[in-house]
Sequence to fold (1324 residues):
Amino acid sequence: MLRQVKDPGVDCDFELHVSSQVDTVLLQATKINMTSQKSDSAMSPKITGELLRQLRQAMKNCKYFSEPIQAYIVPSGDAHQSEYIAPCDCRREFICGFNGSAGTAIITEQHAAMWTDGRYFLQASQQMDNNWTLMKMGLKETPSQEDWLISILPENSKVGVDPWIIAADQWKNMSHALTSAGHSLVAVQDNLIDVVWMDRPERPSTQLRHLGLDYTGVSWQDKIIALRAKMTKRKVTWFVATALDEIAWLFNLRGADIEYNPVFFAYAIVGMNSIRLFVDLKRLSDPTLRDHLQLDSPCKPEMSIHTYPYESVFTELQAICAAHSPKDKVWISDKASCALTQVIPKAHRTPIPYTPLCLAKAVKNSTEIQGMKMAHIKDAAALCELFAWLEKEIPKGTVTEISAADKAEELRSQQKDFVGLSFPTISSVGPNGAIIHYRPLPETNRTLSLNEVYLIDSGAQYVDGTTDVTRTSHFGTPSAYEKECFTYVLKGHIAVSAAVFPNGTKGHLLDSFARAALWESGLDYLHGTGHGVGCFLNVHEGPCGISYKTFADEPLEAGMIVSDEPGYYEDGSFGIRIENVVLVVPAKPKYNYRNRGSLTFEPLTLVPIQVKMMNTELLSQKERDWVNEYHRNCLEVVGAELERQGRKAGLEWLIRETQPIV
Amino acid sequence: MLRQVKDPGVDCDFELHVSSQVDTVLLQATKINMTSQKSDSAMSPKITGELLRQLRQAMKNCKYFSEPIQAYIVPSGDAHQSEYIAPCDCRREFICGFNGSAGTAIITEQHAAMWTDGRYFLQASQQMDNNWTLMKMGLKETPSQEDWLISILPENSKVGVDPWIIAADQWKNMSHALTSAGHSLVAVQDNLIDVVWMDRPERPSTQLRHLGLDYTGVSWQDKIIALRAKMTKRKVTWFVATALDEIAWLFNLRGADIEYNPVFFAYAIVGMNSIRLFVDLKRLSDPTLRDHLQLDSPCKPEMSIHTYPYESVFTELQAICAAHSPKDKVWISDKASCALTQVIPKAHRTPIPYTPLCLAKAVKNSTEIQGMKMAHIKDAAALCELFAWLEKEIPKGTVTEISAADKAEELRSQQKDFVGLSFPTISSVGPNGAIIHYRPLPETNRTLSLNEVYLIDSGAQYVDGTTDVTRTSHFGTPSAYEKECFTYVLKGHIAVSAAVFPNGTKGHLLDSFARAALWESGLDYLHGTGHGVGCFLNVHEGPCGISYKTFADEPLEAGMIVSDEPGYYEDGSFGIRIENVVLVVPAKPKYNYRNRGSLTFEPLTLVPIQVKMMNTELLSQKERDWVNEYHRNCLEVVGAELERQGRKAGLEWLIRETQPIV
Fold:
């Protein structure tokens, strides 16, 4: 699935294309994350007059601050800078009605404005009532949040924001802009949206699941040891973990607090002799879980986990910083919340773009790789069944985008160790396929037919791994143009998948390989080519990726897992994307320059790519060989699984779809 | 020629490769610029004891500052951040003896240390006496300049530097580090090296040459109008030009103050109603020059150039800033000197990575393109003659790297409007070819033979254009391995040259195309693939380029001119590089996605690429077609020129070398 991340520094897919020649701004992005989108009411505006009145009252209420504030900023996002957020954190949606994944609301005494990007102009205008001004980001006439605030605020204004929701670097920029215009940015400890949000959902506190060595390959104790070794090497005495997937990975725990992401709300602080875990303590009552964390059995003091309530991370970090030498260095992600970052005195603070956990998590060990392979085989078996079913059912005219997505979920859920989907299925027919971030809704739901291209981008969480695969198919006869475009996309997919490159190469250097065939014909796609994939964790993870946008990606290493998903989108007509999850593996080319070693990719996804959609004359012999070898492998590996599961329809389909190209 | 630039932010070729897997540091760079290297004494250490004694005395002499300084920093470079510098600016070389292109000397009361990178460890150790400590940059044990200073300075020390030589951003970093350790960085207005440099050469003040519309295509008046239009658009009221090539380009003037670069020492300040040119006023006595600049003829006041002595830029800029509204915005390059940058009050200052002149200069107009084409045809004619001569002379055993370079210069100098070389010729045989920044010296000079690969990277300044071309040849029978490597490099060269890409694409996205064939065989080269080329200006210019290092390059546009120069270097054995200068031109592929338009390259360099070095079996049909079409074009265009010039040997060679591959 295409990635979208909030931090523009790491976001490879939400892109602002400025063509210097024509001086126009093409704004394009790749995926939507409507965390709490309700299909029935998605497109009717929310009535916000009363809410805004209450919020403005709170902005003057000295219970929350020493002096009233003149403006209040409501960013998207939670205190962990999660890509997907829990319902209790959908504060921007609550106040303005707009439920897209990206947007910032600002409320002043007189105005209410919401900034979002080109993906969401239409949706936001439909979901917000006329108390709100839609600020269309990327258009020349649209002011930045800072400029707008400065233009409308009275002198010496105070602008409030919840310091837990805003990242440290964003705070810095906003504060700098406001200060130099005579205003100030103030941290409001009580979230003012929560003050007026009467029926705000509880923060989820789902059951925790612990994973044994057969799934993780490395115990949490050994992960702590490895982390401390890195800290020692860099003379760092404390590490504050704020990203939910890093904490889940570190302790070999999983939760279900956020849909699609098997994580749980927590913080952790690891010192050289102590481990602190901040989490709703009620969740730690299960004896096997307590045993997993060794909470009751005496062990070496430096390996004892001290548990604290989730909310106490602030005071505890404060206490740590107060008690220790000013020479102690503290590692914290530069994307952590402003609130937590600022607890650490500047002299101690060492913000890092990627934490040691993020880096360690990205390089999968052999157990995780084995698990990911197993998950992908099961996932492929389910998809073979799906495609066989689609072939049978589509001619009846009864399959819709939604029912196809539901069928995919049903078939996946029959697979062993299935936990849930890894993201909302993108199931799109014909023109809907050209909407890159499409998600079928009742009012847009199209019926699959023999006349239109069908794109399905879907994936699941299994206890042994996470999947993410896109296939584009035609169940009748594709047009020559559809086949031509599909073939260019396939050539790009193969160019990345088969690329050999030196150790230490960053993913962004491979992005143009995915585009060369499209470019040669004057085509392109306006999203990145790949994202990191977690192992029974978030389907999008750092620090690696493949994108033309050169964010601070880390070099690819053997054991990393990324997606390879070039596409082509013809507005109003069709969309094509071919996505495999691929594993970075050592390559053994003829030479070995400076003993650097080489890498290449091994596809983990093993679902046939529809030959009917290919114009095989446009493929080189090497590309045809790649397709045949890939299909041979699909047949061998997934065929055995389908046979084992007794899934005849899927197996027949697989056999037919993996016939070699000649 | 390969580019080396001082500013690491823009330098695509001086690279620090850190392989995350093996944790070793490979330090590699591409070109040397021994501005004042004397072949006779290059490798004997300079005796510096007395000089250091005098310098240390100056460091205590309160004539130069209110309080003595404890350390003095001597960077490489001049006040314009030029890539090549004049002899009077070789202060770091003067004080320590080391004459490589990159290095910073720091002298304290007790110590003298010089930082340089892996290219220069050997050379620096040979050129410096034992008063100096060589600081090997890139090695783990080597401290940074800041860390070293902090470790040895007594408390509350003052570290001096000439603010004209240090760029604003470098000052900021150094000052920050020193301040946070309780020291301070102070600007010493009198350069202390100049104080002790008795026979320091004069600043050059060569004759200025003005170029008419037949060479420049646009009058300086129209360039001023275009600049002011950009300033108006961005609400900027002043622009300070500090880069010598930008000033030369703006006024359609050329000088010869710096070897290889047809520039002259000057500054310019352009306001909305005034133009100030700061230059040695003696240079403006020539009546035709005065006429060109309209210095005496009354013209519209806003188009009158007011001339000032070179040195008065500081006081004049001060006066401007004092006289104008604090809302006036001043544009200055972020690479300008600290001294000049800090004259502008912070509220006025708008530092920019690429000035409007740099951007405008990069996009050549049709007259410049025509001139560049002419220059490359003449240059190719000279090189055809050279290769014909080499073929004849090499078997006699009398041709050396130096004599071949001399012959190339002689033949070029016979061409119309020849001015000089555009950089020191890299003429290298066998193992010398693997030294990427090689320049032949008497002690390294090898004889060309029938047994070794010969690489020549050379170029010239003509009044109508600048050239830069690398050819790699074998005059006997190349080995299969040499041919194989050459062919991979050629495949990379073609992949870039023939690439079609969307308007707005940045050059760094094309870099991997140049490497794919090498990577596939486990090979690579540790430098960038291309740099911008000036038109009768610097052979290296911004803001575009092609490199795996993602510096802030500007998108490629039709009319830009860059080099395409992949290579392969086998240490101790041979070097291969194939370099053409190429023009960005519109491409017309089958489709036109979102009306963005497409671009490709047209080679300006028209010198045959040696077929003998190719393993044509490794080439695809498309690549063979490219070679044949390129050679057909060389034969047609350069053949006509050689015929016109009556150069039979060259013509015969050209005809032979452009036979189609079958």
User: Anything to note?
Assistant: The two ends of chain B are 31 Å apart (CA to CA). The mean pLDDT of chain B is 92.
